[in-house]
Amino acid sequence: MASDSAGVVTRFAPSPTGFLHIGGARTALFNWLYARHHGGKYLLRIEDTDRARSTEPAIAAIFDGLGWLGLEGDEPATFQFARSNRHAEVAHELLAKGAAYRCYLTPDELAERRAKAQAERRTFRIDSEWRDADPSSWPAEAPYVVRIKAPREGETTIEDEVQGRVTVANSELDDFVLLRSDGTPTYMLAVVVDDHDMGVTHVIRGDDHLNNAFRQIVILDAMGWQVPVYAHVPMILGADGAKLSKRHGAVGVDAYRDEMGMLPEAVFNYLLRLGWGHGDREEISREEAIELFDLAGVGKSPSRFDLKKLLNLNGHYIREADDARLASLVAPLIGPDADLALLTEAMPQLKLRAKDVHELAAGAAFLFKQRPLQMDEKAAALLTDDARALLARISARLSSESDWTVAALEANLKGFAEEQGLGLGKLAQPMRAALTGTTTSPGIFDVLALLGREEALARLDAQVEPADADHTA
Q: What is the pLDDT of residues 200-209, one digit of tens each?
């Protein structure tokens, strides 16, 4: 294995038939990290040979998701369809070598043989009379496919970096198609040619491709090309052990950013820990991941996707994040009234409790509300007649406060609470309702300071009956 050489080249090769899903993002991450760890190169290839299902929006979504996670390729992406002529060229080279053959079996003949095998309860494998036919016997005008001549004796072994030694009897391999009857190359051929031409040394991909590896080796051997190091990574399951689906949160990477309010470093860290580990470490930075990552740490068993764990990790990264950066993420969720400077000032308090960007926005919403405030049900229930009378006394007390800072406001209200023989919570609950319209917010002294003297007093007074108000702000 070329573990320390700078000659390591990995690739991530998604099909652009939809968004970049979470499993694909993890494959990209493992390829990126392996290349970085070994001082090698990480390449992207868009496998767009399925022209009916490959779309420009899907290609854009893949690049967008990779860019958000910081997993862009080291060179411009290769597009597989654009290389169709090169793939066909290799198929014709295999024909010329006698390693492949023209197969003139018709679809009807194949269907008949498949049905016969089914009736006899045996596995259907291509056994074409054209495999060893003399080229002089090839019909001039009849349509044909080009098939590889798979070995029929012996066995093929892969020393997989994740799965270990895996051996398959060559009799299990079939003479699969390289070129279709319209002359277009198949996926199996295109992948091998592209990996070879791109200089890929390590193929790190999902274990659903393990069977493909044995077929791809047939082409590699026939061409006399180097077989790459394989690492087939187990799939990701839902928390319940079932195949990952949308109900587990298995949506596109863009939804983790836009709909779920995740930070890229949290998703990066979480994907890293899905199937790879370094002791008990949960929080691992990008720089540490590059230093620590190797294939030996990838487990053989499927990993389970746990949304709760991802949310907790995201909360950790929100608390670590730069306040101005968080404010810039929250501002578009607030709307045109959002004040970046005020949001940035509020972030140290807002981010203490939030687990995602949407919770940050919800926590900041009180700053931009217009009077009269809309009260939620719990807040409205707190504003009893007694509470309103207390708010009138609090407002009168605060109106004489000239130092509108957290420390001064805290000292003032603590003194007031003692004078009234009340716990601070008895003051804070109705104040929070009056100032924010909700029962959850940053600390009450922070709320007062962030709103500013004029707005804070106006909101308190708005909840006091005019007859009870001691002053006007």
A: 999 999 999 9
Which domains occur in the chain, in start order?
A: 82-233 (3.40.50.620), 246-323 (1.10.1160.10), 369-468 (1.10.10.350)
DSSP, res 128:
-
* Residue recorded with tokens 């929080």: 283
Q: Is the pTM of this model over 0.85?
A: yes
366 DSSP assignment: G
94-120 tens-digit pLDDT: 999 999 999 999 999 999 999 999 999
Estimate the crossing angle of helix 424-436 against helix 453-462, to 10 degrees: 90
Query: Based on the number of CB atoms within 10 Å of its own CB, is 296 exposed (0-12), middle (13-18) or buried (19 or more)?
Result: exposed
Euclidean distance between CA atoms 298 and 315, whole angstroms = 26
Residue indicated by tokens 């609950």? 429
Long-range contacts of range 80-83, CB-CB < 8 Å, 24 or more positions apart?
Answer: 80/13, 80/45, 80/46, 80/47, 80/48, 80/49, 80/190, 80/194, 81/48, 81/49, 81/51, 81/54, 83/190, 83/193, 83/194, 83/197
Decide if 181 contacts 145 (C-beta within 8 A).
yes
Closest by CA position to 450, among listed 439, 441, 437, 461? 441
308 belongs to an annotated ligand binding site: no
Is 426 tagged catalytic?
no
Which residue is catalytic, options 41, 97, 246, 351?
A: 246
